[in-house]
Amino acid sequence: xxxxxxxxxxxxxxxxxxxxxxxxxxxxxxxxxxxxxxxxxxxxxxxxxxxxxxxxxxxxxxxxxxxxxxxxxxxxxxxxxxxxxxxxxxxxxxxxxxxxxxxxxxxxxxxxxxxxxxxxxxxxxxxxxxxxxxxxxxxxxxxxxxxxxxxxxxxxxxxxxxxxxxxxxxxxxxxxxxxxxxxxxxxxxxxxxxxxxxxxxxxxxxxxxxxxxxxxxxxxxxxxxxxxxxxxxxxxxxxxxxxxxxxxxxxxxxxxxxxxxxxxxxxxxxxxxxxxxxxxxxxxxxxxxxxxxxxxxxxxxxxxxxxxxxxxxxxxxxxxxxxxxxxxxxxxxxxxxxxxxxxxxxxxxxxxxxxxxxxxxxxxxxxxxxxxxxxxxxxxxxxxxxxxxxxxxxxxxxxxxxxxxxxxxxxxxxxx
Length: 416
Known about the structure:
Number of helices: 18
Distance between the termini: 52 Å
Shape: globular
Helix content: over 70%
CATH architecture of the largest domain: Up-down Bundle
Radius of gyration: 21 Å
CATH superfamily of the largest domain: MFS general substrate transporter like domains
Strand content: under 5%
Order of helices and strands: HHHHHHHHHHHHHHHHHH
Structural class: mainly alpha
């Protein structure tokens, strides 16, 4: 057996069959994610909407998405992760097709709100399922490989969608709807509801319990700060490159470097990162992202922008491998869905704040945006470092509790 195959076998060990169903379903779903990236183009181009109306519709989408993950986290704890995930995927499929055939502004707005409300239901449910299915000490690897599948599928899907958008936009809706439905059906047929979910339903708990957890709320604020900065790769970066006199192809080159690095580098480092102190790893990743975005202040050529992208991509790889793991490890089992819902809510809130604040800072000058990004990541990294001891304590406690449960003998059934 070669060294590379032995390494691969070791990194994939401990990840059960249902996890790989989730992995394959996620990859299929992200390969078909074509409507959301091109939604603004569809509204202004194919539908001929004004920029003002397009802005209103996109805001409605953001409002729906803002509450999507909180609702999903609550449902995951109340009715089960499997049903919530599958229902979210099927609802997304229906919403995509409804949007495709909506004609009036009112119906478009309703369809986009429904899409926003459904599109991220799968995230807390999926993350919670992974945490239920995978041993504590293997979770960082599991989430790392899942993130890799998301990036691989999304990159390929956007490239295909960009080609189809020029000639046959309706195909984007049908491909997106079909891949969502396939993911939902795969989950219903092949992913069992974890046994502990039935026990979790018997325990009392609420979203208020999550908000009273200061460490988790602190981690949500860290996530909000980091993701606000990360989103500038999609909002501030192309605008800053345009202001620097560079063509759209230059942004395409820079962002392609991001995707290529993730696809190549992440599988090589995920195992090593998973064995480190997760809280400190996240702090280093956030700081590295801040350094990369801050370096964009001095970029004037494509090469310099690419250099900054390489730096913050390293931070992205490190941070995203462990952040979902931290959210799951922080949670007691009966509130795991709600904890992941709060984690996802922070991402969604950043998605609403980033376009408005980012463009306003950029309107002052490029330095105002990128130095603010560096400062926000610096503060978030310090906050994350302060949380690291508590994250380590809860992770070790969860691992010990799981090991004790596994060592307990299964009680025999009494004869009838």
